[in-house]
Each structure stands twice: as structure tokens, then as C-alpha cells.
Amino acid sequence: MPLPFFDGVSAPAKVQRASLFALATILFIFFFESSFFPHVQVLKLRNAKAERARTEYYLQWGPFEPMPIPGFVNTGLPGKRSCDALKHNSTVGVQKSFFLNDNVKQIAMSLDAHPVVDYPDDLMRDPNLSVEDVIDRTWTRMSGSSVWLPDQKVYLSVTRIIFCPSQTWSVPRMSFLRGQLFNEDWEHLENYNITWGDKQINFPRVFDIPAQWEVGGTLYGPEDPRVILEEGVEGAEPVVTFNMIGRQSDWKRAIYVFRPFSNHTTILTIRDKERAETEKNWAPFFVPEEEVVPASLASKLHLPLTTTVRKPSEYIHFVYSFKPLHILKCHLRCGDCEIVYAQTLPETFSNKHKEDGGSLRGGTNFVPVPIPESMGLDRKLRVYAAFPRTNIEGHCGGSFYRPEFVILVNIGSHFHLAFASESLDFGTSLVELGPQDDRCHKGRILIPMSIAQWDTTHRQDIMTVTFSIDDATVQVARVQGLLKYILHLPQFKTLFKKDGLLKGEEAEFMNLLSSWAGDDVRGCLVEAALNYTEAQHEITHPKDHKDELDPSNELLRKIYEEEHREEHGQILNQEIKQDEEEGQGNEEEEEKEKEEKEDEKQDKDHDEDKGEGDNKGDPGDEEENRDPGIPDLEHGTLDPDVLRASQKGHDEEKPHEGEQDDKQPEPAQYYKEKQEKEHEMPGEQKHSAHLEPSSHKRHLHHHHYHRGRSRR
């Protein structure tokens, strides 16, 4: 069939035109495959050189050290299996982390005119303190969250800045949000402009967020920022979520969303639900919204009439809680939220786990898992990955935080946890701990902040994650092999297939069972986190060996108790013997002094009766000469509290009439009471009695903050 395109041209020209046409077709398919042919699999040609170059690019920051990720898989069979039966182990790689820094002096100077920023007079008048010293004592930064912006080819990092003139960092006066830009190599971009619409936005900058405050109060301004970008949507604006107190929420801590380029802030409110005293730890993610391509356009492009394309979402979703699993859907402009999924857990299916003192809370954002089309999974399936964190109490004198890796699955209107790991410390990537380092101090607070990027180009599998350590650092670490880890989970081989159990008439029932089994997975995670924290505490705070004895070994325990009593009895007897020797020496000195005085008196008073010289003298003189270090129980010179305790102990030990006293007396009762008295904090009651009264609202703010910190 003759083609007009080739008519009237020579053979070489025909070859040239055919080549150009073929090249144009290949480029068109390559660039517009995801938009116009979302269901068509196109063979991708491997570029070994590009793959090798990308691998070498990441290795310039150092090698990836092996990191095991033990965890628990959702089998879809709830309530009847132990955590050991749900175990799944594999290994990924983790690279040494690096720090993101900022110019705190520059921040302080830019906020010097802010009405809340007022420095203490004692710092400003101290001639020995420089400006840098004052800033160092009143400003700090923490909790950095980052995301890769593919359109601008930069990382956007949002960090919490704290102004604390009291120098008590747990109760700052005001917090601000700082925005920084970094290039692909994580080099800071100073005085860098981003074009958004018709305006230029300069970075770094302190975001203009409408915070409210009252004179003399504390804990104002935005806290705990998380930044997220909707992937696969051209021109999408990042979203920053944070929590803050203000009049709009009746001074309760509420969640807000902020658009950093359009400078729009919205408070989030759950419909038909009273606002909680503290709203924190919501983990954000996006559910893709699609629209059908108009039939006329589809016809012109020779596409199926039912072709859909991605559009920017008007809503953002949150994991509101993990126990039970609740999912929120919030409008980005007006802030209205509704619970779109609420997990119900019947008692008959629940499995009892050791969870007292532990809970799972939001950490990073959830990001979509890039599952290859070649796996043949159900198209309704959406899979998300994140690093939430556990809060464990009761082991280190405060909360102990560690991240975990979890997989969240969404099928239609159902959500469930498909996998949850045990606690992760990322080896030496984030915190280097020596054998003598206290695990309850250094690295106790290890909080995952954001998943900044997941690079799967050129056969890579590198996830970039940001962390905050001990509320003092902003660190970036890379993890290699998480996609491979996920795709080798058992569910992806059977349950999630197009012809798997989640299809057909039993799909609703199987989704319900998976939800219940997901709570088993969560319970195993918390139980493992409790065991991990206890093991970390044991490293630097080992238990007494007798505490580990089996309660049934009664004789062995009694041996330890007898040894303990003998040991303490020897110490007390030594103290008594030492005090008696000191007392005996004092008596000899007193006797010698009395003899000398008697000799002097005999020399002066020849006519006095010599028998009077043998008297012991006036009681008043005896009282003055008595060693004040020995308590006079007879005359009540002993401290009243100790005396009462001593008399009470004596009365309790005194046998009743007609009973034989087989107990050995405790001659060192006073010294025991004295030691206990010395260990009390003097002036503690006085301090508490003279606390300055504060306003009700300020007290409420402190209550909200500390409650929020405990729910971190």
C-alpha cells in the first residue's frame, strides 16, 4: 500500500524518514507511557552504564552495612497464632548518616523584632557573654522533615526552631518553622529562589505562620513538622503538617496543614467529634485521585474511552491511630475531616499481647510502594510504607523511642497492616554507642521524621529517611533494599494476586480477617519493642541476680536474702563499734578534765571537805560536757521524727506479755533512721509551698505540653 509520506522521494530519503518516524514513536511512548497508556507494559531496555553510575553515586557517601529487619507478617488468620508463627526475617543495607545544619544566628537576627522574642536582662547585661553566647543559650533547632521536589530538583527541609529564654528546653516560649533547600547532593542552597506561579520565593526562610500567644505564656507556635508531596502529580505543592495551640482550638493542641509556597494555613477539625485535648502524631499520606479523560480527547489520541489520568488531590489522609486502626480523610482547603475507616476488633478474635507501657504512634509520612506491573497484583491494591515509632515507658525513667518499619494496605474502603517490624536502631548509622554508654541517656529518643525520597530509577532501591536524635539533631540516612524486602513478603505471592483470595464473593470477609490479623501484627510489634527496651536497659543497668531467680526456687532465694542481711548487719555493727570507741575515748577525756579541775579546786580551797571532790558535779555542767554527737534519749534531745520512728520500731519489736522474745534486738536502729533522714531532700516541701501561682490558661498550656510530650 503506497504511503503519501514516502511518495516522490528517493530511497535514501525514505530510509531517513522511516528512521525519524520510528524514533519519534519510541520517544512518544517513553515519555507519555504513564499518562496515556497506564495499563500497557512497555519493555524497558536496561542501561548498564547508567545503573553502574547511579550505584557509584550513592557509594560516595560510604558503604551500606547489613541491617536485619525481623518482623511479623499478616497471614489473614487472626487471633490463633503466636508472634513466633508470624515471624519474617530478612536483611537490608543502611548507610552512615550525616547531619543537616543551619545558621542559628541568622535565624535569631531575622526574628529579633518579633514581639515574643525578648531576652532575659541577666544575659543581655552580662559583659562576659557575646551575642553568640546569648543566642546559643536561648535558641535551638530540632525535628527536621524533608522531601524531594522533582520539578525543582531540590530537597525541601522544614525544621522546628525554638526560642527559650528560660533555658528550660522542654518548656519553650515560642516555636517557628524554618525552610531550607538542598541540592541532590544535600548541599545547602543559600539565597536560592523557587518560582511558584508568578512569584519568587527565597530560601532559606522562616515561614510566616499565624501563631497566637499570650503575655507570660509558653509553648506557642508550630511544633513537630512533617512535609509530604503527592507523587506522580505534575506541579504538586508540598504540604506541611504540624500541631499548635491557639484561640481557634480553645488553646487545645490541634493539627494544621500549611502550603509553604502559596502560604495558606488551615486547622483540621474532625466532623461530629469533640476535639481532643492534644492532637499529635498523625501520619500523612495521599490516596490517588483519578479522573476520566473526556471522550473527545480520548478519541483524538486513539485511547480507550475509559482512560483515567491523575489529578492533584483535594484531600489528604492520615493514620489517626494504630490501636484501633483509624484513617482520616481531610480537605486541604477547608480543613474538614472525617473518619473513613474505623477498625472493629471483636473480643473473640483478639490475641492478648504484652503491651502495658507501650504504644505505636505516627512517625514518618506513608509513601506509596512502587510495585512493578509485572507482578500481576490486583489493580485495586494500594500499598504504603512508613517508619512509625513506639513509645515505651517504665524502663529508663522516661519514654524510650524507637522506629519500626510497617506496610499499610488499602483495598477499596478497607485498610490493614500487612507487615510490622521489630524495633530498629539502624546499627551505628545514627548513634554510636560504646559498651559503657548509658542506653537510657544517649540515643534514648530516636524519632523518624520523614521519608524524603525513594529512588527506584536505574534498578536502584534507595530510601532516604530523616531522623531526630535526643531532640537535638537533624540527620539523614539511606536504606537500601526495602522494595526487594517488601516484594518478597508472603502476601505478595498469593493473597494480593489478581486471582487471590481478595477477589470474588469472599473479598469482603477476607478484608475483615486481614484487618483483625493486622492488629495481631501491631500487638507483636509493641511486645517486641517492650522486650527490646528492656534489653537495652539491661546493658547498662543490669538486674540483681536474685531478681532473675525462678519464684519456685524458695531455698535459693532465702540464701540470697540471708547473705544480704549478713552483709548489711556487718556494716551496721562496724558503725556501732566505731561509734562506741569514739564515745569511750570521749569519756576518758572528760574524766581526765574532771580530775584536773578537782586538783585545782583542792589547791584553792584547803578548808573544803575532801569528800565533796568525789561528786560528779552539777547536772548542768554534765549536760554541757556531754558529747553532742551521742543522742540523749532520756532527755529527748534526739530529732523528734527520728525519735518517734525509733519508738515505733521498738514498740513493734517488743514481744507481747507471755511470749518469748526470740528476735535479736537491733542496736543500730537510730543509725538506720539517721541515714534515711540524711537521704531526704531538705527544703523540698518549702520549695513546693512557695511556687508562684500562675494563670489557669498557662497551667493548661503546661498540661497540654507535657501530656503531648508523653504522647510524643
TrEMBL record:
It comes from the Eukaryota. Residues 696-712 have a biased composition (Basic residues). Residues 599-619, 626-695 have a biased composition (Basic and acidic residues). One of its GO terms (molecular function) is mannosyltransferase activity. Keywords: Membrane, Signal-anchor, Transmembrane, Transmembrane helix. InterPro entries: BMT1 (IPR021988). The chain crosses the membrane at residues 20-40. Pfam families: BMT (PF12141). It is a single-pass type II membrane protein. Residues 578-598 have a biased composition (Acidic residues). GO terms for cellular component: membrane. It is found in: Membrane. Residues 565-712 are annotated as: Disordered. Its main location: membrane. Belongs to the BMT family. This is Uncharacterized protein. It comes from Exophiala spinifera.
